[in-house]
Write a structure and sequence with these properties.
- The complex is a heterodimer of chains A (382) and B (390).
- Chain A is 49% helix and 15% strand.
- With 382 residues, chain A is α+β, with helices and mostly antiparallel strands.
- In chain A, helix 4 runs antiparallel to helix 5 (84-104).
- The radius of gyration of chain A is 21 Å and the shape is globular.
- Chain B has 390 residues and is α+β, with helices and mostly antiparallel strands.
- Chain B is 48% helix and 15% strand.
- Chain B is built from twelve helices and nine strands.
- In chain B, strands 2-3-7-6 form a four-stranded antiparallel β-sheet, with helices on one face.
- Classes of the chains: A alpha+beta (382), B alpha+beta (390).
- At the A-B interface, helix 7, helix 8, helix 9 and helix 11 of A face helix 9, helix 10 and helix 12 of B.
Chain lengths: 382, 390
């Protein structure tokens, strides 16, 4: 028996292909891209061409078919490149923007955005957060006012991954001003729409190869047919999407923590102090044992939750738990790994510092740990 | 009405109606035959013969064991159900005593014992007619099993045993002890043997019953062997291979701590939520305080991790894979978690938690052993490190 019961033979084959691609076409260029502050758009097209996009999305649209497990495999393997920004850039398009179109879009919208999206030719960005509203989605301010056959969108969006380079944006707007979270809709806005501009590209601690933007909408007009899903049901659509977004973040965190562990273990075996490898000091050994135990525990919770998800069972509580535990443990692992690296860990030429910087966003993005804990408490009826 | 977590729809993925039947049986037994007596047992020890007899009659002491010897012949999932339900016992000393009987003293006997040994000792242990103990630790050697000094010298058809063992759970009441003793002077691991030692033989001495910080309802003994003569047919498996058997047996022993910990930790939290939901501070129930809620949620998240790691181990065992690495991780997590939750819940109870009349104080004392017994946390870390090749 394979130890990993969650995956079947086709997932293993898929994993093998992704692994080869990451090793040949991503890992060798990561340093260069990090320095430049972006990875080439060609990467999306290659992933599309190789058939890596669209796990759980029907083959008729160019997806892989199957279920969420393909996304898990893709995310785990991409994490091994050591750049969280590459993983984020790909995932925010493939695992977060496209599924919204797939789940809630009309046939016409699917043909227009999902199909080229899965080929990596049109890139999507999900826009929820605003300068003054993060985890508290119901309080967002961007407005979309119906005017004849159009929506007129006004407001701004913040921390939008792929915000600079995307082709289409799924923008959460208030369509009923007084209705709070029951007055939100998701509206598609294309790049180039008059009134829509990228205000600035943001400079970040980590995820440096992925672009992150602040967006501005000044009476940007889009056809009414760009409404994605049901009017005023946007909040629920967003919450639905958050589920898989959070789970995929947890998956990525576990994989990144494992990668960080692996490179640090290698370092600790080679680096000597007081005449012996630092990895042979007991305190270091036990640090490794602790880290591995956390990673294993996180992986078990995450795989269990993926299993619940693909079996159609309610897993809202488990997803929030995954997000908290996996993302926080990855931050702790990265920090411990820096400590084991010593001074070198703080040098930009060492991979571990990047993981440390990249992981820091995970307990914040996609709903902070604090918000997740509130959710769990509520779901447990505490 | 007490606070209770909703049942997990997820459990349907792992357990079917037959598991539920066993669960009910064990749960009923714990509720009717164990929990009402716990306070008494905490004061004057658990009457193991009486308790095990009843459990034996229900077929609970040999869930996985061969039906030929009275076992149920069921798989590891049933075993897990059994251990989970024992986690609801309101003092950890009792599940530990039961665990010694079913998972710590008898696995090697079941797997490697001769027909004679299994008929004479395993069968009555499964029936609850004999109380078993396992004797590994010595005054001078605990987790460092290689440093054991108790010796079994071969003389004709007998082993003559000299030495002492300490911290032996069930040691005072045991009818037989599975003893790990040195049978060779060779260095290394192939110089110890596991021997079944009946406690009514001359030379078997219970030196003292030890007084403990926690686990007060379980009896813990220091044993002394003074030229104790035991027939050679009481050897389990092959001579000099006992250490290897014991290492395997340890995996069963350590595994026990996992279900027990996550179930007991949940019980502690339920108890605490019950209390802080009623306790009004500055005009609102204490449970509404965000800091406390988040703390509870963090523990529940780790409980879920431990539970899923446990189920992963069960799946691996079912498929015949070596689980030493995962069990060591589980044991490490379980000890830390149970202690953290017990301590944290006591904190939420405030002064009331410090009173012996409140069972959270008992959990707090009992949980302390989980990071020591069956291999200390530090030993678990060493095992994990070694298995990972560092």
């Amino acid at each position: 028996m394979e130890k990993e019961w969650l995956f079947d033979e086709e997932h293993r084959m898929f994993r093998e292909s992704v692994r080869k691609w990451v090793a040949a076409e991503i890992t060798p260029y990561v340093n260069e891209w990090e320095e430049k502050g972006e990875f080439p758009m060609e990467l999306y097209r290659r992933a599309g061409e190789l058939g890596f996009f669209g796990g759980g999305i029907p083959e008729a649209y160019g997806g892989v078919g199957g279920d969420f497990r393909y996304k898990v495999v893709l995310s785990e393997e991409v994490a091994k490149c050591g750049s969280g920004g590459v993983g984020a850039g790909l995932a925010l398009h493939e695992a977060i923007a496209l599924p919204v179109v797939n789940t809630f879009g009309t046939e016409e919208q699917k043909q227009k955005y999902l199909v080229p999206g899965l080929r990596g030719e049109k890139i999507g960005a999900l826009c929820v957060t605003e300068p003054n509203t993060g985890s508290d989605v119901g309080g967002l301010q961007t407005r979309a006012v119906r005017d004849g056959d159009e929506f007129v969108v006004t407001g701004s969006k913040m921390f939008i991954t792929n915000g600079v380079r995307a082709d289409f944006y799924i923008v959460a707007c208030k369509t009923e001003r007084e209705m709070g979270h029951r007055g939100i809709s998701q509206i598609l806005v294309e790049k180039g729409t008059p009134g829509f501009t990228v205000s600035r590209k943001l400079d970040k601690v980590g995820w440096r190869t992925s672009d992150t933007a602040e967006l501005s909408f000044d009476e940007a007009r889009v056809p009414a047919s760009n409404l994605l899903g049901t009017e005023n049901r946007g909040f629920y659509q967003i919450m639905h999407g958050f589920q898989t977004e959070r789970l995929i973040m947890a998956v990525g965190s576990v994989a990144a923590a494992q990668h960080c562990f692996d490179i640090t273990l290698k370092y600790a075996k080679e680096r000597e102090a007081f005449g012996r490898p630092i990895g042979s000091f007991q305190v270091t050994r036990h640090k490794f044992a602790d880290m591995l135990t956390w990673i294993e525990a996180a992986r078990r919770l995450v795989y269990h939750t993926v299993w619940l998800l693909i079996n159609g069972l309610d897993c809202a509580k488990e997803i929030a738990m995954c997000k908290v535990y996996a993302c926080e443990k990855a931050v702790q692992v990265a920090d411990m790994c820096i400590q084991i690296h010593g001074g070198y860990g703080c040098m930009m030429e060492y991979a571990v510092q990047r993981i440390w910087r990249d992981q820091r966003i995970n307990p914040i993005g996609g709903g902070t740990s604090e918000v997740q804990k509130d959710i769990i408490g509520k779901l447990l009826d505490l | 009405m007490s606070y209770q977590f909703m049942s997990e729809p997820a459990d349907r993925l792992y357990f079917g109606p037959e598991h539920t039947m066993l669960r009910r049986t064990v749960a009923d037994f714990v509720k009717k035959e164990i929990n009402p007596n716990i306070d008494q047992w905490e004061q004057d020890n658990t009457p193991l013969h009486e308790l095990f007899k009843k459990m034996g009659e229900l077929g609970l002491l040999g869930i996985r064991y061969d039906p030929k010897y009275g076992g149920q012949g069921l798989d590891y999932w049933f075993d897990t159900v059994f251990l989970e339900e024992l986690g609801h016992i309101k003092a950890m000393g009792v599940p530990m005593a039961i665990g010694v009987q079913t998972h710590m003293a008898t696995p090697a006997l079941h797997d490697y014992g001769s027909e004679y040994l299994k008929k004479t000792y395993l069968k009555p242990a499964i029936a609850g007619e004999m109380v078993a103990a396992v004797a590994v630790t010595e005054p001078g050697a605990g987790s460092d099993v290689g440093a054991l000094r108790t010796r079994a010298r071969r003389e004709g058809d007998y082993y003559v045993i000299n030495g002492s063992k300490t911290f032996i759970t069930n040691g005072v009441q045991a009818d037989f002890v599975v003893l790990l003793a040195r049978t060779s002077d060779e260095l290394g691991y192939h110089s110890f043997s596991l021997i079944v030692v009946p406690t009514d033989l001359p030379g078997f001495i219970v030196n003292k019953k030890l007084d403990k910080l926690g686990m007060r309802c379980s009896d813990t003994a220091e044993l002394f062997f003074d030229d104790l003569k035991v027939p050679v047919e009481n050897l389990i498996g092959k001579e000099d291979e006992g250490f290897i058997y014991q290492m395997q047996q340890f995996q069963d022993e350590r595994f026990c701590a996992l279900p027990m910990s996550y179930v007991a930790a949940r019980d502690m939290i339920e108890l605490t939520v019950d209390y802080i939901s009623q306790r009004i501070v500055f005009g609102e129930p204490l449970v509404k305080k965000q800091v406390l809620r988040h703390r509870l949620v963090e523990w529940l998240t780790e409980i879920e991790c431990l539970k899923q790691l446990t189920y992963h181990i069960v799946r691996m065992k079912t498929n015949g894979l070596d689980v030493t690495r995962e069990v060591s991780m589980g044991k490490l997590l379980a000890g830390g978690l149970a202690r953290k939750v017990a301590d944290g819940c006591l904190q939420m109870f405030g002064g009331m938690g410090f009173m012996n009349e409140n069972i959270i104080s008992r959990y707090f004392r009992d949980a302390r052993l989980l990071s020591i017994g069956g291999g200390a946390d530090e030993v678990m870390s060493e095992v994990i490190a070694r298995l990972e090749g560092f």
